[in-house]
Specification:
The structure holds two protein chains of two kinds.
Chain A: H1 6-14, E1 18-24, H2 32-45, E2 47-48, H3 51-60, E3 69-76, H4 79-92, E4 97-100, H5 102-106, H6 112-118, H7 137-144, E5 148-151, H8 165-183, E6 189-191, H9 202-210, E7 215-217, E8 221-224
Chain B: H1 4-15, E1 24-32, H2 44-64, H3 73-92
The chains are: A alpha/beta, B mainly alpha.
């Protein structure tokens, strides 16, 4: 198990076992030009990494491109991840990684702002008109055809919020079942609120593996946890 | 060599942003937690690139957090954040 220390991170990077990643949350329409400029600049400097490429690195220790790789991650399952970030990734030939809170997707439109405000999902002014602000399941499926889509729990929960077996099913197991049902794929990764790493809790680690995930994304590592 | 104040300025710049709607650059380690897995060695190019990143990590660690414990993951995140912020800015400019 990886040690959660500065030294361990330094050693991983010194061995060449690292990747550049950019974490995005809200990508409102008003910010589209700035996001496009930023992603285009990254696309010039770095090679986008898709799931097959990440798998390849773990299998061989090598990347298929000379350019350093990068992974843009779009969190929460905002509607504007589909409306703004997804199309920009398509246009720029970037693989986006979309970490979706499935409870946000399931939430009735009239309660989505309340859900967001109750679960650490930040909103901007253009999302306060009462319209749908979460992705729909059809949009999740559409993104999954070209990008990587995976659960970020159902309720944007952290490990400390997931206590009972019922919690584990709702926040870890069911999100994958629902996502897989609409995408026809096996969601490859999982990420906790706050990006808690592998090794934080053996019980929760076991539940994530048993649910069928192959990767756990954390704040400072991507953990390969199953074949 | 940048001063500690200069390093602190970059740290502030990297963190005092509208993080809910701006991209947050990061370096993440690629760890393999599968038991009994061989871990194929990356090539020299990746090692060289990693060595260059580690040099900047060590710089920020010594400038900003020399007295902090090795096990403080909050510090690890801050050091990786400021290192990545600087790296992305340099890489795309």
């Amino acid at each position: 198990m990886s040690t959660l220390t500065f030294s361990a991170h330094r050693d991983l990077l010194a061995q060449g076992r690292f990747v550049r990643l950019v974490n995005y949350h809200n990508t409102p329409a008003a910010g589209r030009p700035a996001l496009r400029r930023e992603l285009a600049a990254y696309r010039e400097a770095f090679a986008p990494i898709g799931l097959a490429e990440l798998d390849r690195f773990y299998a061989t220790g090598t990347w298929s491109t000379e350019q350093p790789g990068f992974i843009p991650v779009f969190y929460e399952g905002y509607r504007n991840s589909f409306d703004v970030a997804g199309p920009l990734c398509d246009e720029l030939d970037i693989t986006g990684w979309f970490a979706v809170c499935t409870g946000f997707v399931d939430c009735p439109v009239a309660e989505q702002e309340l859900f967001a405000r109750s679960h650490w999902i930040g909103l901007v002014d253009e999302e306060k008109a009462g319209d749908r602000i979460a992705m729909s399941w059809d949009e999740v499926a559409d993104l999954a055809a070209r990008h990587v889509v995976y659960p970020h729990t159902a309720s944007h929960d952290g490990i400390a919020d997931v206590i009972t077996d019922e919690d584990i099913f709702r926040e870890i197991v069911e999100p994958k079942q629902k996502m897989d049902a609409v995408t026809g794929q096996s969601a490859p990764a999982f990420v906790w609120l706050h990006g808690s790493p592998w090794g934080s809790s053996p019980r929760h680690d076991r539940a994530v593996v048993e649910a069928g995930y192959r990767y756990l994304f954390s704040n400072t590592m991507i953990h390969r946890i199953a074949d | 060599m940048e001063s500690a104040n200069e390093a602190l300025d970059v740290l502030r710049e990297s963190q005092d942003r509208a993080l809910h709607r701006e991209g947050i650059p990061m370096f993440v380690g690629l760890a393999d937690e599968r038991p009994g897995q061989d871990r194929p060695a990356p090539g020299q190019t990746d090692i060289d690139r990693g060595t260059a990143v580690v040099e900047r990590m060590e710089h920020y660690r010594s400038a900003l957090a020399a007295q902090q414990r090795d096990t403080d993951m909050g510090v690890v995140i801050s050091v990786l954040t400021v290192t990545a912020y600087e790296d992305f800015d340099r890489s795309v400019s």
